[in-house]
Design a protein that fits this description.
The chain has about 170 residues and is α+β, with helices and mostly antiparallel strands. About 35% of the residues lie in helices and about 30% in strands. α1 runs antiparallel to α2.
């Protein structure tokens, strides 16, 4: 169809159609494609994504949380546990170690399961596995995905703007 459209545009140019007439044809094509894409998306089921999050505690029994960037697609400027998406074919434990390193510069080993939470967004669903992390070492240095980090106790956590998944865990 795109080749047909390109041919049609060249034909219009060859036949000396005005720029305005060519632009109208171009926008008609774009609108048809957008309507088709929206129709396909409407009829599509939401897919599930797997996300992993790490519970890192310090000696004062405080938990490491990070604040999402204002331009994040989900939960912008909300506090969350560090972690991220599991890539296709990747073990979730390896994904968690990778994400913790990328987001916080910390090295760790994956411990026990803390909680599993499902979040429904407009275009997808995610299942988040929250795991306790052991043998954590290094100094926290956050990535560009986040704007701040802090160590917070339970009372402090309850006073912050938290991500949907972290709110569910605290309930």
């Amino acid at each position: 169809k795109k080749l047909h459209y390109v041919f049609k545009l060249f034909l219009l140019i060859y036949l000396n159609f005005s720029k305005q007439q060519i632009a109208i044809q171009y926008f008609k094509f774009q609108i048809k494609n957008m309507i088709k894409t929206l129709h396909e998306a409407k009829n599509m089921e939401k897919f599930y994504g797997l996300t992993v999050r790490g519970v890192i505690k310090n000696k004062n029994d405080e938990i490491l949380i990070v604040k999402r960037h204002p331009k994040s697609k989900t939960d912008p400027e909300m506090w969350e546990l560090p972690g991220g998406k599991v890539e296709d074919g990747e073990y979730f434990t390896k994904a968690l170690v990778r994400e913790i390193k990328e987001e916080t510069n910390l090295d760790c080993k994956v411990g026990d399961l803390c909680e599993a939470v499902q979040n429904d967004y407009s275009n997808k669903r995610t299942v988040q596995l929250m795991m306790y992390l052991d043998d954590v070492s290094g100094d926290v240095k956050i990535s560009e995905e986040h704007t701040e980090f802090m160590w917070a106790n339970l009372d402090k956590l309850k006073s912050l703007e938290l991500s949907a998944s972290l709110k569910k865990v605290l309930k």
